[in-house]
Amino acid sequence: MARLTDRARELRRNQTEAEEPLWNELRGRRLATAKFVRQYQIGDFIADFACRSLRIAIELDGGQHPENERDLGRTRIIEAHGYRVIRFWNNEVLENIDGVLQAIGDELEVARNKPSPVGEKDTET
Q1: Average pLDDT over residues 95-113
Q2: CA–CA gap between residue 113 and residue 9 (Å, rounded)
């Protein structure tokens, strides 16, 4: 676990070209008042961004990283932890951030209107 924590810290210090502008739009509850964190550990993986209270994980993929079996497995594991995974290509963020923010906002709205499972607690602080 300490290894993943160290890796998450490193990733936060070295944001990708696409992560930086998206984080600027998500941080500080700027999008629909939802609190996001970056480089958040979910199981054995680190999601690029996560809204813990609404159980949404956002993954950014570069052109060198086309969707493959490994990504599908990663998505299944994150979903098994109760998160909805939303994926965007880096170029989508860089070329159409408004569209990306709209898609994330739509997912936030759906999540807010979805009843919580019995016994699940809000983990957002």
Answers
A1: 97
A2: 33
